Amino acid sequence: MFKIEARDDPKSQVQLHELEYPHRLNFYDKPPLYDVSIEEFETSALDRLRILAEIESSRVRNRSWEETKKVTGDQCDKYLQLKSTLAVGVDRDAQRRKDHLGHFVLRLAFCRSEELRRRFVQAEMTLFKVRYETDASTEREAFLRSRDFNWVAVEQAEKEKYREQLISYQSKGDTPFENDKYYKVRWTRVPDLVDKRKVFLHGGWAYVPSRDQSSIVYDEFQARLEKAMIITSRYMPRLDEDMRIGGILDNLSQGFLAGVSGEWSASPADMNGDAIKAEMVDELANKHFPMCMRNSHQKLRMDHRLNHFGRLQYGLFLKVLGVSVEESIVFWRKSFDRINDDTFNKMYKYNIRHSYGLEGKRANYPAKNCQQILTSGGDPGCPYRHFSPENLQSALLSTYAPLGLTSNDLPELMKTVKDGHYHVACTRVFEITHGSSGVKKGEGVGGGESVTHPNQYAKRSMDLQKEAEEKVAQMMITS
Amino acid sequence: MSAEMMLTFYRRLYPFKSIFQWLNHSPTPDSFFVRREIAFNLPGDVIIRYNSFNDHDEFKRQTCKLNPTRFEIGPVYTARPRDRKTARPGTFNPTHRELVFDIDMTDYDPIRTCCSDADICKRCWAFIAAAVRVLDTGLREQFGYVHLLWVYSGRRGIHLWISDKEAMGLTDDQRKAIVGWLTVVPKDESKRLNVRAFGSRALPASLQAALDHLAVVFTDLILEDQDCFGSTDGYEALLKLIPDARVAEALREHWASSSSSSETKWKDFKTQIKTYPKGSTARAILTEAMEDIILQYTYPRLDENVSKKRNHLLKAPFCVHPKTGRVCVPVDPEKIEEFDPEKVPTVSQLLGELDSGGDGDEHHSDWERTSLKPYVDMLDRHNAAIMGEVRNEKREAGDLSW
After folding, report:
1. Does residue B46 belong to the interface with chain A, where contact is any CB pair within 8 Å?
2. Taking CA atoms, which of A169, B69, B152, B225 is between 20 and 30 Å from B177?
């Protein structure tokens, strides 16, 4: 009803024409030909990458189409809103410009290898499909009219001629033949329909019913993007000379390895007051830490020492978890119980204070995210990536059996690891070990998100426990 | 096959020029030939990949030099395969390739009763013949292709090479799609077919068209000749495909008590179907099952992996099968039922014909004096059609540019 009113309203008609981007859907034919700041360049791409990375992990995790659509929609709401043309009170052009720019920046980041191109095209395809399906039908039709898809509407006489054949491809519940429209395209443009034997083929022409029209659109989108990516890759050598951009692009192209994590640097303990004491770390590690941090913790307890990167990685993690600098010094002092005070103060205290921004350049260093840990080279690294398969299996069992992981879970996890989706395996472990808190398969660390940061993992785990405790407390009060 | 025989075969009989024209689509060497991969198979499972040649003379010289047991044809690449190491990394990729299909008798082993494994006789050739009919008609009518070359594989199967412009340029995804379209029989023999649209009673049009032909084949081949349901194992396989427990049980009891021919059993099945009233759902389901069974026993079974990827290698026509010595000759699909694999010329037979044929001097086209001639002529006619089309296209393009 809203739509009809809006269409009759002459004002909205005028507005339609005034938009720089008249449609919500975009085939990205034209590159952005305007000046952008480096910051815009980076944020538009990062925000888009968050969405694509989540789409990628949805695929790896075999999420159903409906689930993928939901997760993708949620991510889009967070990072890259794209409102309908009829939306009021939002700068639609600004949203669409960001969508446009982000897409093209990521093209640059992902055109470098065939593997990256394939994954990018696949993720972009899914994003386009989600938007296509959620687009209002009038706007979608307007978009389809706005460009030539090179299909031939099938004339009534021809439709009647092949009546029997066309009907034989109809499923129960499809639009009745009489009311259905057909479009002719070369069969090569709808390979998915041909593969499943869902269209009538004659002389190399596929007779596509209107319900499957989207197949033509999707195929066109994919074919164009694939071609464009190859052309972009040929121009890359010239662009790599730009120092400002090269680094950003390198960083972006890592995005599919572990997703895009938020910045975990502020100390949450400042906000909620329940500071973590040094003696609590042992218990927290057993209950809430992801595999990488538990590994560091165990190593520290066993060897009474940890290498430099191990200290840095684990120390920053603890800082962000909410261990104050005083407690941190206590924690490390107790852990290194084979050295005397003097050595400790000389060798380690400065570094700990430094990581808290109290020495040297006094920077507030963020904790390392999954991407950094995954690409760090392995010591301590990410267990899912850097352990041998045998070690990983036994480590998983010994670490997480008390939290509900069984050997039945291993094949699935090991397969994910073998395919290189380490953060997906980690996310799955989170779900398994938090099943008792009501976390279901596919939920990830809340809202279907995957693990992208050890602190995100630990925080979510602690929050879940707190929620559960509060619930119990609530019940005690009410009863 | 001795090495000397093979060498003589390559020097005097192998139709290099015709093969060149067929791959090249025009009389003068073009990218389709010079960027084409030829892989040589040498004795001892050695394979030399990424050979490419400037023209058919060079092709012949190199073949005679290496004297392979056979050679295979790969795709056209973005650059000459032999120069692939000079290409920038990632830029050496396949671009074109004939659309190829391979039908092999081994895929019919679960149902054929006359031979097994590598053996093939005139009787089981009927399976291949049925497959060729269905594929040939289907690819022409549904996909609109016209340049189809069927080639006997030398032992127990047949290859199809499609050289239409569109077919040459298909991507791997599109090739996969066409394989999906043509795949009907499930991998697991005991599973029932699932080919109808959701909730639809009718077969998809492409399969209905095939069924009309295959119903006849089914009676002749499956019921009469192969007698597929004669044995207990045979009819048990059939009963598994009947989706009506009452009917299946009644038939099992009946057939266990006395042995009967497949034809009689099929009639029994039909009689059972008629116990349900016309227009009833049970009867409709069984009628569908009957159609499905016919397709399951006679529909072409493809070796999918050959067709799905552009860069799959496939043995060249006119090569010699190392085990049988038979030449992989083109086959006329119109006369496929008459084709007898055992009458295909062998190398030794052809060399014998050369020796008895007179002067003993070597000529380039000595095949003209042997029983290879009709087959080479067949390829040349095929080439003339391809080249004629390419010529017309070029002329039209030329007209525009003037």
Report:
1. no
2. B152
Whether residues B148 and B217 fall in one domain: no
Query: Residue B48 belongs to a domain with what CATH number?
Result: 3.90.920.10
In a domain, A67, yes or no: yes
Cα A465 to Cα A126: distance, rounded to the nearest angstrom: 35
- Structure confidence at residue A349 (pLDDT): 87
CA distance A181 to A472: 59
Does residue B311 sit at the A interface (CB-CB below 8 Å)? no
With 80 as the cut, is the pLDDT of residue B275 above it?
A: yes
- Say how many domains are in chain B: 2
Which of B72, B104, B107, B288 is an active site residue? B104
Average pLDDT over residues A89-95: 88
- Contact residues, chain B, for A114 at CB < 8 Å: 90
Residues in CB range of A162: below 8 A, 6 or more apart: A200, A202, A207
Whether B347 has its CB under 8 Å from any CB of chain A: the answer is no
Which residues span the domain enclosing B213?
Answer: 185-298
Are B292 and B331 found together in one domain?
Answer: no
CB-based contact A204 B144, cutoff 8 Å = yes
Query: What was the pLDDT predicted at A371?
Result: 86
Contact B90 A113 (CB under 8 A): yes
Q: Is B170 an 8 Å CB contact of chain A? A: yes
Q: Helix B232-240 vs helix B245-257: angle between axes, to the nearest 10 degrees?
A: 170
* Residue among B102, B164, B288, B303 flagged as catalytic: B102
* Among candidates A171, A188, A194 on the partner chain, residue whose Cβ is nearest the Cβ of B200: A171
The ipTM value here is 0.92
pLDDT of A271 > 50? The answer is no
In a domain, A60, yes or no: yes
Shared domain for B172 and B260, answered yes or no, is no
**Residue B229, SS3?**
coil
Give residue-wise pLDDT tens across range B367-378: 888 999 999 999
- For the question of residue B104 being annotated catalytic, the response is yes
State the average pLDDT over residues A108-123. 88
Domain boundary among B281, B298, B315: B298
Q: What is the pLDDT of residues A350-380, one digit of tens each?
A: 888 888 888 877 777 888 888 888 888 777 8
Residue positions of A in the annotated binding site for [4Fe-4S] cluster? 292, 370, 382, 426
Shared domain check, A467 and A348? yes
Model pLDDT, residue B364: 61
CB A135 within 8 A of CB A143: yes
Which chain B residues contact residue A195 at CB under 8 A?
A: 176-177, 180-181
Local structure of A210: helix, strand or coil? helix
Mean pLDDT of B341-356: 91
Stretch A452-469: mean pLDDT: 89
What residues in A contact B204, CB-CB < 8 Å? 168-169, 197
Nearest to residue B171, comparing CAs of A230, A106, A31, A199? A230
Give the C-alpha separation, B144 to A186, whole Å.
Answer: 10
Percentage of chain B modeled with pLDDT above 90? 75
Q: Are residues B82 and B228 in the same domain?
A: no
Is the pLDDT assigned to residue B289 strictly greater than 90?
yes
Q: Do B200 and A170 touch (CB under 8 A)?
A: yes
The answer to whether residues A338 and A451 belong to one domain is: yes
Q: Give yes or no: residues B294 and B335 share one domain.
A: no
Residue range(s) defining the domain that contains residue A466 = 269-478
pLDDT score, position B101: 97
Alpha-carbon B180 to chain mean position:
16
Supply the pLDDT for residue A345.
Answer: 85
Helix axes B262-274, B232-240, angle to 10 degrees: 30
Query: Which residues of chain B neighbour A204 with C-beta distances below 8 Å?
Result: 142-145, 166
The dihedral through the CA atoms of A298, A304, A306, A310 has a sign that is: positive
- Residue B153: Cβ within 10 Å count: 22
Minimal-distance CA residue of chain A relative to B171: A188
Q: Compute the count of residue pairs across chains A and B with CB atoms less than 8 Å apart.
A: 71
Residue B4 in this model has a pLDDT that exceeds 60: yes
Give the model's pLDDT for residue A11.
Answer: 45
What's the token pair of residue A261? 């994590």
